[in-house]
Amino acid sequence: MALFKRVLIANRGEIAVRIIRSCHLLGLETVAVYSSADKGALHTRLATRAICIGPAAAKDSYLNINAILEAAKLSGADAIHPGYGFLAERADFARAVTAQGIVFLGPDAGTIATMGDKISAIKAMKAAGIPTLPGSDGPLGHDMQANRALASRIGFPVIIKASAGGGGRGMRRVDSADALADAIALTRAEALAAFGDDSLYLEKFLTQPRHIEFQIIASGAEAICLGERDCSAQRRHQKLIEEAPAPGIVKNLLAAMAARCEAAAKGLGYQGLGTFEFLYQDGEFYFIEMNTRIQVEHTVTEMVCGLDLVLEQLKVALGEPLPARPLVRGHAIECRINAENPQTSLPSPGLVTGLQLPGGAGVRFDTALFAGAVVPPCYDSLVGKLVCHGHDREDAIARLRQALGELEITGIHTNQALHLKLLACEQFSPWQRDIHFAAKLL
Ligand code: ADP
């Protein structure tokens, strides 16, 4: 059990704001850190105090471990919450934090390292009885004859993935034996350049899967699954719309997978929030990766479970018991609002000149925006999450469409029109939808 009273949030934007709120609800003090590009940003205004940790470039600020540890020392922070992105899944960061005697609000560095590498993660999950796709069972070798034999045995199409990859990068689909050698060479070179690690993994490529993931909260000794989310609405392997519960999947099947995830988390001695991600096709689940941190889309789980996940995570870290297993009520659905040009989908940074917020029962907008806020060009383009809860899926979608129509952000461009198009689409029915439907539609 750890005791702490001042939490440094090593992040920015909506997630920093969201974490600060839960800390304050528990009476914990907060320390915001910011780059010079985020001077005056909402998270710096809501925290108990704020410390500048460097220039705009993320590598010099939000990814600068020394600067963050220095800020923790200076402010007397005794815990650090990494949020998502940036350093959240860096085992070296978790280790460095703990080495300073500061509580890292996440699993231990060893678990982050195992799960951060696709090869070791798949190996660990197989051992825990979690189903995986047929694949290379370890790193892909340099013997092309053996690789061709393996791919043919699995059956084309296959997908080659950088073991250290993340955020939808470092993956390549291969449709024939002829294309295999070039695809491996290209992905290897990209992986080395992007992640500094050229190990690759090969597995079966599924042509019509849905993306279904299970939320876990764990105390080390115990783990409970807070249900699943469907994140099949994606573009370029990036999630756009997420919902809970997953529509159109037999409840018994979901409950069985949830139980296996709980057992796996317990086996890992997992601590805090985590997500097991699966592809689902033809009634079967296949593990693809585990995220050892809070996820963007945790909010839909909060809405249907009636829980504040960050608050529960903080309580568990403070030695309190896990929450009681919640009943899932109604349906929640979320749109990721990105600052992007609707024609080119390139980032659209700038000054927010006006903001009109949606409201009403079951409507939630998590954001760091305000009129006068600046969206800097140097970070992720996510500027808000519009989440609606309804008594069923149809009701949640109706509320979300209404809220999307009410939300007005001026000064920057957003992807609101794209979301309205997706939600209006007849194909946005759970049965016709797979991870490729959004790309096909758009
Ligand atoms: P990352 O770590 O980059 O997020 P993941 O392994 O989680 O990579 O995969 C991200 C997305 O890529 C999935 O949600 C899915 O859309 C697609 N994908 C991954 N593996 C496969 C596969 N075997 N077959 C088809 N699509 C896949």
Textual characterization of the structure:
It is an enzyme of class 6 (ligase). This is biotin carboxylase. One of its GO terms (molecular function) is acetyl-CoA carboxylase activity. The strands form 5 sheets. The protein has an 8-stranded antiparallel β-sheet, sandwiched between helices. Strands 3-2-1-4-5 form a 5-stranded parallel β-sheet. A hairpin with a 2-residue loop joins β10 and β11. Helices cover about 35% and strands about 25% of the residues. With about 450 residues, the chain is of the alpha+beta class. α4 runs antiparallel to α5. The chain is globular. The protein binds adenosine-5'-diphosphate.
Mean pLDDT: 95
Count the beta strands: 20
Low-confidence stretches: none
**Beta-strand share of residues:** 25-35%
Question: Whole-Å distance between the termini?
Answer: 49 Å
Please state the CA-atom Rg, rounded to the nearest Å.
21 Å
Look at the helices and sheets and give the structural class.
alpha+beta
Bound molecules: adenosine-5'-diphosphate
* Global outline: globular
